[in-house]
Write the structure tokens for this entry.
Amino acid sequence: MSLLIQDLHACIPDREILKGFSLEVKPGEVHAIMGPNGSGKSTLSKVLCGHEDYEVTSGSVTLDGEDLLAMDVDARSRAGLFLAFQYPFEIPGVSNANFIRAALQARLPKGEELDAVGYYKQLYRRMDELEMSRSFTARSVNEGFSGGEKKRNEILQLMMLEPKYSILDETDSGLDIDALKVVSQGVNAMRSPERGFLVITHYQRLLDYIKPDIVHVMVEGRLIRSGGPELALELEAKGYELTHAA
């Protein structure tokens, strides 16, 4: 049981970006990927979730033994994969409450209906944990939200959907320290032996609050170094030049 990526190559029409990326995330583990701009970190998250702009040219990805790359985007989500976007999309005309409710309903067996009372009870509890106003339930998804509000909303979706494997693509970007703490608390509340995380970030500060088990360095489309949490501190102090000498 794991999210297993083996020798993954992927490209856009004029350029190969992932060049033999391999990684295994097991339930209960938190992996952090750090690396300079243009190393392929966000591309990895988009490829795993089935973004149509990227073509996988070789390699494999399995989610708990199932071929992830053979699944449609919605099937990947229902199978237990979640992506918190670096730049969350706005969805005018669709309320937060209805959006999350529809996502949960899609995961139920055919003919089974989501319990509305239980749903709202859970939604309000999670919103309280993220210090979100109840007014956000009626607002269109991310429309008019600040950067910090969008990131909290991404974590709210994570907390409600309870995926098996979560990819956080630079969730810390654009957050002040107070928002960063709240978002990190939401993520930490979801950590469990049954759930794996892949945290993509440029900065050590996120990892002060979401403690990783393993830190990886990604350069030019592949992992070139892995280590414990102390590796992130080393990168913060010395930069990515040290990885070329390692």
Notes: Residues 147-161 form the longest helix (15 residues). The chain has one domain: 3-245. The first strand starts at residue 3 and ends at 12. The chain is about 35% helix and 30% strand.
